[in-house]
Amino acid sequence: MLFTKTAIATGDLEAISARVEQELRTHKGKYILQGMAFIIFGVLAGALPVATALSTELLVGVVLLLSGIFQLVLTLRSKMHWWSLLSSLLSISIGMLMVWKPLAGLLAVVTVMAIFMTIEGIFELLLAFEFRPVRNWNWMLFSGFITLLLAAILWIGFPAFDVLYLGWVIAINLILYGISLLMLVWKVSA
Question: Nearest-CA neighbor of 19 among 127, 131, 138?
Fold first, then answer.
């Protein structure tokens, strides 16, 4: 970690800040490219919220279906424990349900997205505090708070927020994270 509990003294914070800024300066182009990609995909997700929500649901369904089939084949070939067989059958069943009944699966995806965004928001806040010695670290902090707010909207409002709002929540999250990356490297001197 860049910012650790042992780095309490001002000299240590300055050293950490210098290391973080050097890392950002060295890989500035990669951070800019990544930030722009998040913003572009966020705008697309916001422009097509229903497609975003349904494609997210279908992607999760396909991943579950394919990973379940793969796990089943490996389980049968290696004669693994019965719980591995049950796990693969559960994955296949849920995946099939999500692919063939996408609207029913969307409610599950909304719940999973709410869990994911809650955890992601917490991690963004922790990352923001790790970047605290760097100028514009507060953009990452802002992004973390907004991600937690969006997660709360999903928790409070689903199923009313299912299709349309899930797409917009994903879009806002992508855009804000992209902006936070760009702002993090904005003032780093070349």
Answer: 131
Residue 63 CA to chain centroid, in angstroms?
17
Q: How far apart are CA 60 and CA 79, in angstroms?
A: 27
Alpha-carbon gap, residue 54 to 19, rounded angstroms = 42
Q: What is the model's pTM?
A: 0.60
| Residue 116: closest CA among 31, 37, 56 | 56
Residues in the chain: 190
Give per-residue pLDDT as tens, 136-151.
Answer: 788 889 988 998 998 8
Mean of the pLDDT values across residues 116-121? 90
* Model pLDDT, residue 148: 93
DSSP states of 13-34 as a string?
HHHHHHHHHHHHHHTHHHHHHH
* Euclidean distance between CA atoms 117 and 137, whole angstroms: 20
Asked if 147 and 176 touch (Cβ cutoff 8 Å), the reply is: yes
Look over the chain and give the mean of its residue pLDDT values, rounded to a whole number.
82
Torsion angle of C-alpha atoms 33, 38, 41, 47, degrees rounded to 10: -130
CB-based contact 91:68 (threshold 8 Å): yes
Instruction: Please give the structure tokens belonging to residue 62.
Output: 């396909």
Residue 134 reports pLDDT greater than 90: no
